[in-house]
Design goal:
The protein is built from 22 helices and 17 strands. The chain has a 6-stranded parallel beta sheet. A 6-stranded mixed beta sheet has the order 12-17-16-15-13-14, sandwiched between helices.
Length: about 550
């Protein structure tokens, strides 16, 4: 009789449980509460998978990345430039990835991230807008330009189903020789960078995209690239606090949702030689406790030598990154399902309670951010509407704004011989590398002769063309162009230098009297530059560094 009663009670309990709906990402609970409940309901492997953000190679989703989503239920994917030439195909791919993720037990969407900073860092190519970039915003000095840049960039990403952008870059323009940062910085002033970074952040949020400030604590004071080595920055903590950390202090108070940790060494701080990305001192003590940041911390690509060389292996770097306080570990390629980076972390959760708790806390933070941004009317749709992409990309209002921004940012550094019209200029030679430079130049000076130079061709041909010109308009891109430009000095011609990208090279050509900077090789920047040369636009931008 007792056995019958027990079976009856068990059947009632089973029926009762069947009536209780399973936890779902769409449950109408506050993000903090639901994130905690979902984390508690997950197995260790499910929680671990949420902290993985993986890239893949190719325009279409690889079978391996689909396996990680369907079988492991990873938390995010990262879109790189090699995925993005065909914009429509990219949108279809994002839809396929999200469908696979939403089919999981809890219906949790992926974080779909990319690097669309503006300027020359534009991983999503195809039909998206080319923009003047951060240093142009710094040259205009107008926070609304930062806000609208963030808004229009994010609006285009949202059409493609991309819900997270690794921007703004708030590294300072401290080391002028840096080829990695350069015009990716707003400028050298830490407070102004924080203000512009916060405005850029707000613009992205208005479009429904999650902004991510980078590269914490700051990549601007080194000429080295953490893709290849671990850069060493000898600044004291006091200097960092007043300088590189100021933008993060400002943005954290404005509700910054995510930060990317950089593979950078600061040996004159308590972190000693450890990369900041693997340092609990920088992530927990400084970022969370002293600055008060409450959002998500994501590593820069762990496959970069700046992380793996110091840690000894990718799997060790991944474990150290999580223990240091990162919530998401990002890998640019897709490892095999049973690669050491997965098995090492999974096994550590079984034997190391502190690590297990840290992973679960990272999972909770990741889910909370998703719940805050990836559901509701303002969320980026997980499945992109392909018709909207055809009709709204590039964004027409965005294109008009970026042209206005380019015009506001043009900086006339040496005004001699400016402005000048076609009649005054006489025979014009356009010397440069970029087709957009020639197109804008020929519209401004219809009879101009274009000459595409390269360092491999030497200077004699350029000199020959220049001898037949009255005015040479030279497009200066970087230091490799300087020998070509210097070869023109003995000719005593009227020379106008239009600098794109980093304008510091202009300091090495003091003999040129007519110099202006546009900060980008976007088509709008060339149009704006020639408009200033002709006197149609005043060119009131200011160099955003000292």
């Amino acid at each position: 009789m007792k056995a019958v009663k027990l079976l009856f009670l068990l059947s009632l309990f089973s029926a009762f449980r069947a009536e209780i709906p399973a936890l779902s990402f769409e449950d109408p609970l506050p993000p903090e509460t639901l994130a905690l409940e979902l984390t508690r309901a997950m197995s260790d492997e499910e929680a671990l998978a949420q902290v993985f953000m993986l890239g893949w190679v190719g325009a279409e989703p690889s079978p391996l990345i689909m396996d990680w989503i369907k079988d492991r239920h990873i938390g995010g994917v990262k879109i790189f430039g090699w995925n993005t030439e065909d914009t429509r195909r990219l949108a279809q791919t994002v839809g396929e990835l999200q469908k696979a993720s939403l089919a999981g037990a809890y219906g949790i969407p992926l974080l779909v991230a990319t690097d669309q900073e503006g300027g020359w860092i534009r991983h999503v190519k195809g039909s998206t807008s080319e923009t003047p970039g951060n240093m142009a915003i710094g040259a205009s000095g107008v926070p609304r330009d930062a806000y609208l840049s963030g808004y229009y960039i994010a609006k285009e990403l949202a059409l493609l189903g991309i819900n997270m952008n690794f921007a703004p870059t708030v590294d300072l323009f401290t080391n002028r020789e840096s080829t990695l940062i350069g015009t990716r910085a707003f400028g050298s002033d830490p407070v102004r960078t924080g203000i512009l970074g916060a405005a850029f952040m707000k613009g992205q949020q208005a479009a429904g995209v999650i902004p991510t400030a980078k590269h914490y604590p700051g990549h601007g004071d080194t000429g080295l690239d953490s893709h290849g080595v671990l850069p060493r920055i000898d600044a004291s903590f006091e200097a960092l606090w007043d300088r590189e950390l100021s933008p993060y202090r400002i943005m954290a108070k404005e509700g910054l949702p995510a930060v990317m940790s950089g593979h950078l060494s600061f040996p004159n701080t308590q972190a000693a030689d450890a990369p900041a990305s693997l340092s609990s001192y920088f992530l927990d003590e400084v970022l969370r406790e002293r600055i008060g940041f409450k959002g998500l911390i994501i590593t820069d690509d762990l496959m970069m030598n700046g992380a793996t060389t110091w840690a000894g292996s990718l799997s060790r770097a991944a474990r150290q990154a999580l223990m240091a306080g990162n919530d998401v570990i990002m890998l640019s390629k897709t490892p095999s399902l049973f690669d050491p980076v997965w098995t090492t972390l999974r096994d550590a959760m079984k034997t190391d309670e502190a690590f297990r708790n840290r992973v679960r806390d990272a999972c909770r933070r990741t889910l909370k951010l998703k719940l805050q941004y990836l559901r509701g009317e303002t969320a980026v749709p997980p499945i992109p509407d392909l018709k909207k992409i055809e009709n709204e990309l590039p964004d027409p209002k965005g294109s008009a704004f970026f042209l206005d921004l380019a015009a506001r940012s043009v900086t006339v550094i040496r005004p001699a011989a400016l402005p000048i019209n076609a009649e005054e200029a006489g025979r014009v030679l356009l010397a440069g590398r970029y087709e957009d430079f020639f197109q804008a130049g020929r519209k401004a000076f219809p009879e101009a002769v274009p000459y595409r130079y390269s360092s491999s061709r030497g200077t004699s041909e350029l000199i020959s063309y220049a001898r037949g010109a009255d005015t040479v308009i030279f497009c200066l891109s970087d230091g490799t162009d300087l020998p070509m430009l210097r070869s023109l000095e003995p000719l005593k011609k009227r020379i106008i230098v239009l600098s794109v990208l980093n304008p510091v090279y202009l300091e090495q050509v003091s003999w040129v009297d007519a110099v202006l900077a546009v900060y980008s090789y976007a088509p709008e920047s060339f149009v704006a530059g020639f408009s200033v040369i002709l006197g149609r636009v005043p060119g009131r931008g200011r160099l955003p560094y000292e």
